[in-house]
Design goal:
Elements: E1 3-7, E2 10-11, E3 17-22, E4 29-36, E5 52-56, E6 59-63, E7 65-71, E8 74-84, H1 87-104
Antiparallel strand pairs: 1-2, 1-5, 3-4, 4-8, 5-6, 7-8
């Protein structure tokens, strides 16, 4: 089972919109995750968000690039950015995303 966590040990239930970009050479890329009303920002959550953790049977991919979105002073969303600096990073990320998409009913739409 694959999962995304913002607080280690607590799976995020909100399903993100994911945007991918890749360099022309294919050696670098970015993945932007946009979560609307994530559980990690709930009023009953007392733990700090320490990063975005993408977990599957191969292990964990970690990003520290996480920003909160506020509307009228209330937390409404999270945006996580994962930067892939090699073809190996890209391939590993895509294996995670294939598992995550299958487990959570996501589909790919090319822009």
């Amino acid at each position: 089972m694959s999962a995304i966590q913002f607080i280690q040990g607590v799976d995020e239930e909100a399903i993100p919109e994911v945007r991918l970009t890749r360099s022309r050479s294919g050696n670098q890329g970015t993945a932007t995750f946009i979560f609307e009303n994530p559980k990690a920002l709930g009023q009953d959550v007392t733990e700090d968000i320490t990063g975005m953790y993408m977990i599957d049977e191969e292990g964990q991919i970690t990003s520290r690039e996480v920003k909160a979105k506020f509307i009228n002073g209330e937390p409404k969303g999270l945006e996580g950015l994962y930067v892939m600096k090699s073809k190996e990073d890209w391939d590993r990320f895509m294996r995670f995303m294939e598992r995550y998409a299958k487990d959570h009913g996501l589909e790919f739409n090319q822009a």
